[in-house]
Request: fold
Amino acid sequence: MSATRVGATRPEGARAALELELVADPALLAAARLFAAAAARAAGCDDDAVEDVRLAVSEACARSMRGAAGHERVSVEARVGSDGVAFVVDGPIGSSEDPIDELDLVAALFPSSSSSESDGRTTVRFAAPAGRPPV
Reply:
């Protein structure tokens, strides 16, 4: 059984859709961070935005993985376009033992982010704009 699955599709005229699926194992958080950074760079995000994306995806995945059974899956979807990248992180409802919840950090980094819980799953959505700082 594979620990990760990566796929990409691009319907004509649409944004590139990239997907990463992980088993709920914290040892795989590095793969989620690398995936997120690569998607943000492909969208033309500046270095600060790439780091924010990397952190937000890592925190959203970590929260889902906390307390999850090893067979449960966490998925990260990135839709890359000329205007930036939109992320959807979906995984089992996890718990936060820290006074500051991981999803609060995502909201601080991306104020327009949203999260919802349904059918035992948490879904986190946020987007980072493309653009490079002036040279």
User: Anything to note?
Assistant: The chain has one domain: 4-129. Residues 47-65 form the longest helix (19 residues).
